[in-house]
Amino acid sequence: MALVTPLSAEHDLETKALAEFFNETLGFCPNSVLTMQRRPAISKAFINLNKAVMANEGRVTSALKRMIAWVSSNATGCRYCQAHAIRAAERYAAEQEQLDNIWEYRTHSAFSEAERVALDFSLAASQVPNAVNADIKARLYKHWDEGEIVEMLGVISLFGYLNRWNDSMGTSLEEAAVESAHQYLGKHGWERGKHG
């Protein structure tokens, strides 16, 4: 059961207009945003940050950004964000083999070395205490430039906020996100948990 009830999408028209971004990403406006709009400055700032973080200015693709988000959310245990990240990766045309084998990204042939280090970076940066070290830095610099590393850490940091928000709120999962999560994560025991 959610800590705070989401408001109608009509509650704040500026948030509603900005939230159209999520129609492409997820196919719906997330309940997390509908809850944030109880303080519209937060919902608007969040959506604008999300749009900036998810803009592609280098070689970090939209699909890879969503897989980075999934690894981060998996590390923190937020089932809501896991479901959203895998759904968005699917909608941004992540390879089917990657979606089916995201749990095995370190060893599965569907992932390149560049993708592996990006996902390892996400895992290390999402842990407490933080596990980013000289080895990860060296591996990152073999495949990515500094602007791309900033983009990746932007995703990880954005999802750090979302993981805390949605797990603390117990945000109710939307059915479309549940379907994607069951399809790609269910074989590893994914379930809604508190996000029912």
Structural description of this entry:
It comes from Subsaximicrobium wynnwilliamsii. This is Carboxymuconolactone decarboxylase family protein. With 196 residues, this protein is an all-alpha fold. It has two domains: 8-55, Up-down Bundle (Single alpha-helices involved in coiled-coils or other helix-helix interfaces), CATH 1.20.5; 62-188, AhpD-like (Up-down Bundle). Helix content is 63%, strand content 0%. The protein is built from eleven helices and no strands. The protein has helices at residues 13-18, 21-25, 31-36, 40-54, 62-76, 79-91, 96-100, 113-126, 134-143, 146-169, 175-185. Helix 4 packs antiparallel against helix 10, helix 5 crosses helix 10 (146-169) and helix 8 packs across helix 10 (146-169). The longest helix is centred in the C-terminal third of the chain and has 24 residues, at 146-169. It starts with 12 loop residues before the first helix and ends in an 11-residue tail after the last helix. The model has no long low-confidence stretch (mean pLDDT 97).
